[in-house]
């Protein structure tokens, strides 16, 4: 008989054994039937790789992993980021192509997309679309990459929290697009995920057109549809409309607009941010800054507004484009939330107090031994004035007792339930003799950064203002913290990027972004219009994931103890303290150089040579940008930061740059420019009135009217 053959791996029992030749009459081993060939497997292999053991392993670990993962250190696999090529779901890509993109004339749509790319290349921020054409161009230009970026960040949040622990029930999405982050979250959570509340705030005063498109895209996801016994948000839809749906043709073959009034989804599309609600997960996508010259005021105001809505144990996800403006927006939001300048020597990721969002504010009480200052005298005068006011109010109160008796006779006495505060169950009650320090100094709002930062110190790459990146002719190196993401192009992007306007290379020097094309290049555009085009495209993003700690008394006390008794010793077993690779590793002979952001808050260049160890060297050569690196280094070089003196020189250089200075002054000009829209221009009388008002308000018209010496003042002439 055959000799027993030992297998090389215990986990590859279903591998076909090629050492034995089988005749045509003998059955061959298959993946489903191995009982006829048990004699070829050793007994210990059969026991360890049984179906029960494999099922137990899958339930415990989740996945047996790829065969190539067995060569990596387990910590390297834990710190690995998502580098797969993202694909937009086919139903969403089809509805964008058939029911959104095809609603616009291709030439006008491409022209509008070129304008959007030009504005984005100049200002580095997105703008709120208003008309239908602008919304279609915005979706055709930005939706694909925005979806891939949101999916990458949300997958990292799920990985850090744990797939079993990541199940948000109250979600809010904020952005200019068609609820892009909500679409990505629905795909990650699966078709059976039904949370308590899903809301999306589409930024913009005139957001009706984008809300329609968001409804169309979201309706293609199974977890957005209602069951048979449920009612959607449009519960008043007539029964006649639902009866006609069965008689229509298959929706996948339909080209044209969709009546969104007959579409019901679980996500509620909002016009404004709520005030009283709180959410477990808030996703903010490229909407913290609308005008670059309003930095950082707009970022501060929006962050304070959003953090009021974050529930305890909730997560805030901020996603921006990976350009200088996007990075500075994220860095400013991070600085505002954790205040690294207030804890310069603190190591680790102890949650930081967020004073503005806390119910209790820490008070600086004066000591009795302090000298009497001018401020104390002014404070005493205010207190005396307040005392006089209270005496007057007491007299008025005595006079109002008779009025109170009349009210009691008319409406009855006040019950204890009517005297309760609103949401009194959520309030913490203190005794009358409680010291004021325990009442006012109790901060119940703490934040900590989950990713991408491995520390809570000052960002080593933050400059504080996007203007520094515009300065030319200087020798300083200005890097940003951004990460790349590759996404596969669906058919609608390939179709729309054919032709002259979007298939050629971007020319920054030309006004239209295209410039003049040679005969050879124009000839190559004939036919397909995408010569040597790829089926993928890549984008870069800057992001931040923040978690709010629990605000119960036990959690707050634990945070205070960590801060009071911390020995500043990092726990290297915790993935949140592992360095993150910022740039693409440089592979040289028998050495790998990687630029990492360390837990000490520095940008360092680490060397991982072959002499450090076979495992570390192997994993370093396979590492990529955005991964966490847990296996250490042999040597390192700390990169210097820009000093305050260097920033002063850059400020002076920025002001002396005449072109940049004039452009910024034009943007900051307070005078509002009034234009005429296409709809108003179609109305001849209204368009004439608008142009006449604009002409009469000009200084040139007024100056020439004074020189003409008219009998009637033109500014007061009403036409009669």
Automatic annotation (TrEMBL):
Record-linked InterPro entries: Mt_RNA_Methyltransferase, Ribosomal_Rsm22-like, RSM22_mit_bud, SAM-dependent_MTases_sf
Region Disordered: which residues?
A: 225-251, 698-720
Regions of compositional bias (Basic and acidic residues) in chain numbering: 236-247, 708-720
Listed GO cellular component terms? mitochondrial small ribosomal subunit
Alphabetized, the UniProt keywords read: Iron, Iron-sulfur, Metal-binding, Mitochondrion, Transit peptide
* UniProt-annotated location(s): Mitochondrion
In its UniProt record, a GO molecular function of this protein is:
methyltransferase activity
Q: Which residues form a coiled coil?
A: none
* GO biological process: one example: translation
Location (main, coarse): mitochondrion
Taxonomically, the superkingdom here is Eukaryota
Query: What role is this protein assigned?
Result: Mitochondrial ribosome (mitoribosome) assembly factor. Binds at the interface of the head and body domains of the mitochondrial small ribosomal subunit (mt-SSU), occluding the mRNA channel and preventing compaction of the head domain towards the body. Probable inactive methyltransferase: retains the characteristic folding and ability to bind S-adenosyl-L-methionine, but it probably lost its methyltransferase activity.
Identification of the protein by name:
Uncharacterized protein
Q: Which organism is it from?
A: Candida maltosa (strain Xu316) (Yeast)
């Amino acid at each position: 008989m055959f000799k027993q053959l030992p297998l090389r791996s215990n986990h590859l029992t279903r591998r076909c054994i090629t050492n034995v030749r089988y005749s045509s009459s003998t059955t061959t081993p298959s993946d489903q039937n191995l009982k006829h060939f048990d004699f070829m497997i050793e007994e210990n292999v059969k026991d360890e790789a049984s179906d029960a053991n494999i099922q137990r392993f899958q339930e415990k670990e989740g996945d047996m992993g790829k065969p190539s993962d067995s060569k990596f250190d387990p910590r390297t696999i834990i710190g690995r980021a998502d580098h797969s090529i993202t694909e937009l779901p086919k139903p969403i890509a089809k509805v964008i192509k058939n029911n959104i993109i095809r609603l616009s004339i291709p030439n006008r749509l491409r022209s509008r997309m070129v304008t959007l790319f030009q504005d984005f290349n100049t200002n580095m921020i997105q703008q709120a679309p208003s008309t239908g054409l602008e919304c279609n161009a915005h979706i055709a230009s930005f939706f694909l990459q925005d979806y891939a970026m949101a999916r990458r960040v949300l997958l990292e949040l799920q990985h850090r929290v744990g797939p079993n622990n990541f199940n948000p029930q109250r979600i809010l999405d904020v952005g200019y697009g068609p609820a892009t982050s909500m679409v990505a979250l629905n795909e990650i959570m699966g078709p059976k995920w039904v949370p308590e509340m899903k809301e999306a705030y589409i930024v913009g005063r005139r957001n009706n057109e984008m809300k329609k498109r968001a409804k169309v895209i979201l309706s293609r996801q199974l977890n957005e549809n209602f069951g048979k016994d449920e009612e959607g948000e449009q519960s008043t839809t007539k029964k006649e409309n639902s009866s006609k749906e069965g008689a229509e043709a298959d929706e996948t073959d339909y080209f044209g607009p969709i009546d969104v009034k007959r579409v019901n989804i679980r996500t509620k599309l909002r016009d404004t941010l709520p005030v009283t609600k709180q959410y477990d997960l808030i996703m903010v996508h490229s909407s913290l800054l609308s005008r670059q010259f309003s930095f950082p005021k707009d970022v501060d105001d929006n962050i304070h507004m959003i953090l009021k809505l974050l529930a305890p144990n909730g997560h805030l996800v901020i996603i921006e484009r990976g350009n200088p403006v996007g990075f500075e927006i994220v860095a400013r939001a991070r600085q505002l939330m954790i205040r690294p300048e207030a804890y310069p020597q603190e190591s680790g990721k102890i949650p930081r107090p967020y004073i503005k969002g806390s119910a209790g504010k820490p008070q600086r009480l004066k000591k009795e031994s302090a000298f009497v200052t001018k401020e104390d005298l002014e404070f005493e005068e205010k207190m005396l004035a307040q005392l006089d006011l209270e005496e007057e109010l007491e007299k008025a109160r005595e006079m109002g007792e008779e009025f109170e008796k009349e009210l009691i006779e008319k409406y009855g006495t006040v019950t204890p339930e009517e005297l309760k505060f609103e949401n009194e169950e959520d309030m913490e009650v203190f005794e009358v003799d409680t010291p004021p320090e325990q009442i006012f100094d109790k901060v119940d709002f703490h934040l900590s950064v989950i990713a991408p930062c491995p520390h809570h110190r000052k960002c080593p790459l933050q400059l504080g203002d996007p203007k520094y990146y515009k300065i030319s002719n200087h020798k300083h190196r200005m890097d940003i913290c951004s990460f790349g993401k590759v996404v596969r192009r669906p058919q609608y992007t390939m179709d729309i990027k054919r032709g002259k306007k979007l298939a050629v290379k971007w020319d920054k020097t030309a006004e239209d972004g295209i410039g003049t094309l040679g005969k050879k290049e124009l000839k190559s555009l004939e036919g397909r219009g995408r010569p040597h085009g790829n089926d993928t495209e890549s984008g870069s993003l800057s992001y931040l994931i923040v978690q709010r700690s629990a605000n119960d008394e036990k959690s707050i006390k634990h945070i205070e103890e960590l801060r009071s008794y911390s020995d500043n010793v990092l726990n290297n077993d915790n993935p949140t303290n592992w360095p993150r690779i910022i740039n693409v590793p440089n592979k040289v002979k028998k050495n790998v150089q990687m630029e990492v952001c360390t837990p000490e808050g520095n940008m360092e260049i680490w060397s991982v040579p072959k002499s450090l160890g076979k495992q570390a060297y192997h994993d370093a050569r396979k590492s990529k940008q955005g991964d966490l690196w847990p296996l250490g280094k042999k040597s390192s070089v700390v990169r210097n930061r820009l000093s305050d003196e260097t920033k002063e020189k850059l400020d002076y250089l920025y002001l002396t740059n005449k072109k940049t200075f004039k452009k910024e002054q034009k943007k900051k000009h307070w005078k509002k420019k009034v234009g005429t829209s296409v709809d108003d221009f179609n109305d001849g009388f209204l368009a004439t009135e608008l142009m006449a008002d604009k002409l009469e308000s000009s200084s040139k018209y007024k100056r020439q009217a004074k020189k003409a010496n008219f009998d009637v003042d033109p500014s007061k002439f009403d036409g009669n």
